Structure formats: structure tokens, C-alpha cells
Amino acid sequence: MDNLNGAKPHFVIVPLMAQGHMIPMVDMGLLLASRGATVSFVTTPVNAARIKPVIDGASDAGLPIRFVEFKLPCEEAGVPEGCESFDLLPSVDFRKPLFEAISLLREPLKLYLEEAKPRASCMIADICNWWTTEVARELNIARLVFHGPSCFFLLSSRNIHQSNVYETVADEHESVVVPGLPQRIEITRAQAPGWFFEWKEMQERVMEAEEAAAGVLINTFQELESEHIALYIESTKKMVLPIGPLSLYNKDAKSKATRGNKPSIEEHQILRWLDSMEPRSVLLVSFGSMVRTRPPQLIEIGCALEASGRPFVWVVKEAEKCADVEKWMSEGFEERMRARSLVITGWAPQVVILSHRAVGGFVTHCGWNSTLEAISSGVPMITWPHSGDQFLNEKLVVQVLRIGVSVGIKVPVFHPEEDKVAVERDAIESAIASLMGGGEEGDERRMRARELGEKACKAMAEGGSSYKNMTLLIQFALEQCKQ
């Protein structure tokens, strides 16, 4: 815990109600509280229930963090009751109404801050919560924005937007070179459309909110993206603090297992199975909280895993395990794979799995949390992007860092057709063989991944680059207290 000489800054953290956004911001709140700062973390009843073990653990440890629950006005915004996170929505049609419901927390947040003791000295808002700009301005509270994606994505998106490079293409599938990067990176508009491409008004509000912020926090670390961080600072002319990988705040198996949600399988069962496997022999297959893989594609993945001959942990969501998939699994797959597979239905403690010595590869959708968790554990990846920031994250992993193998996806999957297979089993099996196999290229890829994992741990340790940036963040808030 830091010696704050009696003064305690009070950080108010306002996340977006989405698992990929909430999880790193919870880690950030716990990290700030562990270093002596007072923290108010804004949440809702359903989201608080999902992280109850985390809340209880913080209370037991005596950390100065409050989880402030506001009722989300679902009915008022036209969102089904209880759907307080984007992964709980029954349809993509409810995404915009949920953004609207979250923005209606403006008044409850303002009332809380007017009465908060000690007075809030710094607000940290998810970049998507543009509406917090007005609250911070009215109450004269310094406001920083938190970016969940990689700095590589942020810089690329900013450069694409400012250069209007997409205006030169014939259609959304024609490649362009991303301007202003140290490397030659080609992307299509379909793969990297930018923030809130469907809703221009929201995109403009988000960009205005970032311009109005006093600084930017990013869940990355200096040694991973040094060139891109420097260029981003030059472009934004702001204080930019890389403070990650935030997942490394969680040191023990219990805290790793309870991040985000209660796992559907006890961590000791997973650890016992992993302990029985050879080092770096297991492949983890998991596509984050938002992706919904259709039955034919799930079966193709399963057939490729079986054909690979390698042990694997496969995370299948409850919503994905329909009658067709259940039937296929029960007709021989489960029996044949019993000795070398662990199929988890529901929420899996991903960091617990990735950080185990038995795991040697990760098939991922390239969401930044998952990507950074793999990097932190020194695990190379098979990249299978779906949408959002994921295609640019894939470029970073495969082309810049050279710690991944692409499965070959070229077109985003927004509304996958029931019977369409995006990647055939042979291509999946080939990627697995390339990633997990021997040879000079594979050995060098594993070595680079391992070295980055060591650098990630050093960045978060006392005296590391992210640790120092967290100190600068606390000092910034203390200056606001004085003013």
C-alpha cells in the first residue's frame, strides 16, 4: 500500500455494463484501493451479483472500495428487465436501448457525487460513457477516460478516421494501408469500421468526450506497444498512461477464478485436470462473452480438435449448446475425447487456465482482454476475430508481435447464418498443427510469447512501467485534491 501522507484521493469509476469492459475496470479499482486510494465503483444489481465473490473478497481484505449499485432503468429505455449487460441481451436489436439505459444513470451518479465523502477527486469513465463528461464538468471533477482495446487499435482507428482513407475504396472489402504506423498494416473497412459505425451520433459524442478528458488510461504496457503509445500521445496531445495488464492484479487461483462471473466449474477440478497434462501440451478454445458460435461451426471446431490429436479445454456457452450440438457430442465425441478433453459449458475462469503450465496455445476471438491475458501468461495464439477491435488486434498479434497464427477469417461475423461455416475443420486443424507443433518457427513464436509474458509481469511489479504509471495516476488525483 502506498504512503499517501494522510491524503487519500477518491476515484469514481464508471464502467460500461459489458463483461469485456467491466472486468478490467474492476481490476483497476481493486488495484487503486490496494494502494491506499478510496474508490467508488458504479455498478447495477445484476452486475454486482455476478461479481459478488470479488466484492466479498475486497470487503474481507478491508480494501477502501465501495461498489455503488444504481438501478438500471431498463423499462424506461426499452430493455428487457434484468438485461443489465450486453452479453445478457436476447438480440442485437437491444444494444442501442441498453446504451440509452446506461446514459440514464447520469442523474443518480450526480446525486451520489454531490453527497460523497470524501469528495471525488477524479472520475475514470469508460470511453463509451460519453455522458459522464457533463456530470464531471458540472461538479468540477477531473475526468479521465479508460480505453479497453489495445493502443495499436486506438492509434489505427484514429489515423484511419483523420485521414479519411476509406473514402478511396470501392467497397468495404477493399484493403487499405493504415496510415501513420511504423509497420505496413492492411485492413478493410468491413474488418475495422471504427467506433459505433452504425450510430454516427454516438460516435461523435464518444470522440468529443475523449477530447474533453484530462487524460487517457489504457489496459496495456509500455514494453508491448512502445512505438504505438508514443505516436498516440503525439496525436492526442494528452496524458496517456498504460497501466496494464490489469488481469495480473489477481495473484491466487481464487481471485483469478471469480473475475467477471461465477465459473460453471470449480477451479480445483480444472486445475486437477490440467495438472495431469504435460507442460505446454493443452490448447484452450474460448471466444469471450459476446460471440455466439452457430452449431455447424461448433461441430467443425470439435472435429478439428479431435483430428489434431492434442489435449484441449473447450469453452462452449450455454446458449450455443443446442439440441444438434448435444446430439453430436453424445454420439461418440464425448466418449472418444474423454481422456484428453475438458469441455466447459458456461463461464470459464480463463486466467486460471491460461496461467497454468500445461497450456501451450489459445484459440481466441482476439478481444483485447483475452489477448492480453494470453500475452501475460506467455501463451501464443490462433487468431479468429469476429468484429469490433478484433481484426486490428489480430494484426498486432500475428504481424507485429509475431506470437500468433491466423485461422484465415477475412469477413466479420455480425449475424452468422444458422447453416454457414466460416472456417472448415481442415483449416482449423492446420492452424493448430502450426501453433502447437515443433520446428524453428514454432519455437521462436513460443519464445517471443514467453518473453512478453515476463515483461508483462515486470511491468506490473513494483518499480515496473505500469506500476509507475499507476503512481502517476494517484499523484494526479492528489493534485486535484489540493486544487
Automatic annotation (TrEMBL):
CDD domains: GT1_Gtf-like. Its EC number is 2.4.1.-. It comes from the Eukaryota. One of its GO terms (molecular function) is UDP-glucosyltransferase activity. Gene3D superfamilies: Glycogen Phosphorylase B (3.40.50.2000). It is an enzyme of class 2 (transferase). Residues 12-246 form the Glycosyltransferase N-terminal domain. Keywords: Glycosyltransferase, Transferase. Belongs to the UDP-glycosyltransferase family. This is Glycosyltransferase. It comes from Iris pallida. The lineage of its organism: Eukaryota, Viridiplantae, Streptophyta, Embryophyta, Tracheophyta.
